[in-house]
Write the C-alpha coordinates for this entry.
Amino acid sequence: MIAVNRSLLVLAAALAWCIVVLPAPSRAAGRDDELPDGDGKKILLASCTNCHDLNEVTKLRGYYTKAQWRDVVKTMVEYGAQLKKGEDEVLVDYLTQHLGKK
Protein backbone atom coordinates (compact mmCIF):
# COMPACT_ATOMS: atom_id res chain seq x y z
CA MET A 1 0.00 0.00 0.00
CA ILE A 2 2.78 2.46 0.91
CA ALA A 3 4.71 1.59 -2.28
CA VAL A 4 1.64 2.36 -4.40
CA ASN A 5 1.12 5.70 -2.62
CA ARG A 6 4.79 6.63 -3.16
CA SER A 7 4.51 5.72 -6.84
CA LEU A 8 1.45 7.91 -7.23
CA LEU A 9 3.17 10.74 -5.39
CA VAL A 10 6.23 10.49 -7.64
CA LEU A 11 4.03 10.41 -10.74
CA ALA A 12 2.03 13.43 -9.55
CA ALA A 13 5.23 15.36 -8.79
CA ALA A 14 6.67 14.53 -12.22
CA LEU A 15 3.47 15.66 -13.94
CA ALA A 16 3.40 18.91 -11.96
CA TRP A 17 7.05 19.54 -12.86
CA CYS A 18 6.31 19.02 -16.55
CA ILE A 19 3.35 21.39 -16.48
CA VAL A 20 5.32 24.15 -14.76
CA VAL A 21 8.77 23.78 -16.29
CA LEU A 22 8.42 22.51 -19.85
CA PRO A 23 8.08 25.21 -22.48
CA ALA A 24 4.72 26.11 -23.90
CA PRO A 25 4.27 26.23 -27.66
CA SER A 26 5.89 29.37 -29.05
CA ARG A 27 3.94 32.28 -30.39
CA ALA A 28 4.91 35.72 -31.54
CA ALA A 29 5.12 38.37 -28.86
CA GLY A 30 1.93 40.37 -28.63
CA ARG A 31 0.80 43.57 -27.01
CA ASP A 32 0.20 41.76 -23.70
CA ASP A 33 3.90 40.84 -23.62
CA GLU A 34 5.07 44.44 -23.71
CA LEU A 35 6.59 45.30 -20.37
CA PRO A 36 8.52 48.39 -19.28
CA ASP A 37 12.30 48.16 -19.37
CA GLY A 38 14.19 47.81 -16.14
CA ASP A 39 16.30 45.44 -14.08
CA GLY A 40 13.25 43.30 -13.32
CA LYS A 41 12.51 42.83 -17.01
CA LYS A 42 16.13 41.83 -17.67
CA ILE A 43 15.93 39.22 -14.90
CA LEU A 44 12.54 38.03 -16.15
CA LEU A 45 13.81 37.57 -19.70
CA ALA A 46 17.09 35.97 -18.62
CA SER A 47 15.74 33.60 -15.97
CA CYS A 48 12.10 32.87 -16.76
CA THR A 49 11.96 32.61 -20.53
CA ASN A 50 14.56 29.84 -20.57
CA CYS A 51 11.75 27.44 -19.67
CA HIS A 52 8.59 29.11 -20.96
CA ASP A 53 7.39 31.94 -23.15
CA LEU A 54 6.87 35.40 -21.72
CA ASN A 55 3.12 35.06 -22.28
CA GLU A 56 3.09 32.33 -19.60
CA VAL A 57 3.98 35.11 -17.16
CA THR A 58 2.04 38.02 -18.65
CA LYS A 59 -1.19 36.00 -18.83
CA LEU A 60 -1.17 36.17 -15.02
CA ARG A 61 -1.54 39.97 -15.10
CA GLY A 62 -3.78 41.12 -12.25
CA TYR A 63 -4.01 37.78 -10.46
CA TYR A 64 -1.25 37.86 -7.84
CA THR A 65 -0.36 40.03 -4.86
CA LYS A 66 3.26 40.68 -3.95
CA ALA A 67 3.24 37.75 -1.50
CA GLN A 68 1.87 35.47 -4.19
CA TRP A 69 4.44 36.62 -6.77
CA ARG A 70 7.13 35.94 -4.14
CA ASP A 71 5.77 32.39 -3.79
CA VAL A 72 5.78 31.93 -7.58
CA VAL A 73 9.39 33.11 -7.84
CA LYS A 74 10.44 30.90 -4.92
CA THR A 75 8.75 27.90 -6.54
CA MET A 76 10.42 28.57 -9.88
CA VAL A 77 13.81 28.76 -8.16
CA GLU A 78 13.05 25.42 -6.51
CA TYR A 79 12.31 24.05 -10.00
CA GLY A 80 15.67 25.31 -11.27
CA ALA A 81 15.34 28.96 -12.29
CA GLN A 82 18.75 30.58 -11.89
CA LEU A 83 18.80 33.87 -9.99
CA LYS A 84 21.75 35.69 -8.48
CA LYS A 85 21.64 36.88 -4.90
CA GLY A 86 19.09 39.69 -4.53
CA GLU A 87 17.55 39.22 -7.97
CA ASP A 88 14.54 37.44 -6.50
CA GLU A 89 13.31 40.58 -4.72
CA VAL A 90 13.99 42.78 -7.75
CA LEU A 91 11.95 40.34 -9.84
CA VAL A 92 9.13 40.14 -7.27
CA ASP A 93 8.94 43.95 -7.09
CA TYR A 94 8.87 44.21 -10.89
CA LEU A 95 6.20 41.53 -11.30
CA THR A 96 4.10 43.13 -8.56
CA GLN A 97 4.39 46.62 -10.03
CA HIS A 98 3.66 45.68 -13.64
CA LEU A 99 1.58 42.49 -13.40
CA GLY A 100 0.30 42.49 -9.82
CA LYS A 101 -3.22 42.57 -8.51
CA LYS A 102 -4.56 46.12 -8.38
In short: The two ends are 47 Å apart (CA to CA). The CA atoms of residues 7 and 13 lie 10 Å apart.
